[in-house]
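Risk mitigation, structural track. In case the binding assays with zinc ion fail to produce interpretable data, a predicted complex structure has been prepared as a fallback.
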Amino acid sequence: MSDDESSRGGETWIEWFCGLKGHEFFCEVDRRYIEDKFNLYGLRAVIPNYLECLSLILDKTDDDAEPETLQNAIDLYGMIHARYIITTRGLDMMLRKYQIEAFGTCPNVQCHNHPVVPVGTHDDLRFDQVKIYCPKCQNIFKVTTPEGAEELDGAYFGSTFAHLFFLSHPHLAIPSRPKPYVPRVFGYRVHGVGPAREQSAESAGRDSTEQSQVERLKAEVAALKGKLAAITAGEGGGAEDMVLAGAEDDADVQARMKKKRTEAFD
Ligand SMILES: [Zn+2]
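Fallback model:
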């Protein structure tokens, strides 16, 4: 433990921890919340020296913690913190921080310094550092300020808080998304640059192929319709005509044969 960390004066462990530089994202979890075992369910299994860490957080020990124990205590506080900030009281405490932009503002220029909230991409420890979520552009970004906050584990804030926060405070709803940035060359809008253009061309080629296939199929359908119409027409008078034609042929042949026989006998 450093001199800074050991000289807490009259502060509680929680006040000291939340007051450290780079810990501005944390709110002070209500002691009574931590003392309720129900709220800590399952944490004993993920935090080594769980009871020692809990004693440290609740100022129930005067002993200086070993660095390893201190890190475990920080993990325990972080995991409790992630649960606390999705309670009504926790959400209100984070709201006050949001209102003074304690979590910083969106680095997206199009968002015009809109305030952000911390967000974890995972709910378990050691997966990823905390990120910031902007409700305006609905993106997450790496933390750049305050210094040191970028090292915090994302699990200390969890993946739910950021979104529950805005659902719980509908008055913070963003009326509109920022206008997308428009790339320009010499003042002219750029359409389909680089890979986008290739993709666009490929897409156009695919569209053109699909279009020609559709045209060919249409032509085939039209031809088939024509044939079908001819056959249908044949079923009406055509077939009968053919039979009659055959009959006429027969009659013609018979008449000629009769004529030949008559000539032969004459
Ligand atoms: Zn933004």
